[in-house]
Amino acid sequence: MWRSYGANYQQNCKGFLVRVKLDEFIDELSKIESKNSHISKLVYGNVSYYDFNKENNIQKVKYPGFRKHESFKDESEFRLICYDKESTFNDNNYLKLSSWFYEGIRISAHPEFSLTEYHDFRVDLESKFDVSLELSELYIWYKLKETLKNRIS
């Protein structure tokens, strides 16, 4: 699922899970563009969930990134999409936010990150911001799945 949201879903795109207090985040959204000159457009909102097997149930939306299969409805997802005029797909992209905002934020690395990738991103993130990167709670399960898959092959 994580790879579905990258610019090139064929590649091994890994992202981050960011947990924030929604009301504080919405307050911060109005400041993001002024603090991040590289952002050309910022779109955010709730995701709409559809049964893709019933085409007449699918509403047209301006940004397809806000449409998801109804099987994920329990996520009640809120998304932020930034259009960046400077970065390439392979760049590490960061948003500058107000310093107070980082106090309640939790960031988890994708569970398929290797420990080296996790460490490198953690060092990079902590050197730029007053926030820590957590290893995903699913990390051990991904490693178990990988180990079992290798034993079967």
Automatic annotation (TrEMBL):
InterPro entries documented for this protein: DUF2971
Protein's UniProt name: DUF2971 domain-containing protein
Species the sequence originates in: Albibacterium profundi
Species classification: Bacteria, Pseudomonadati, Bacteroidota, Sphingobacteriia, Sphingobacteriales
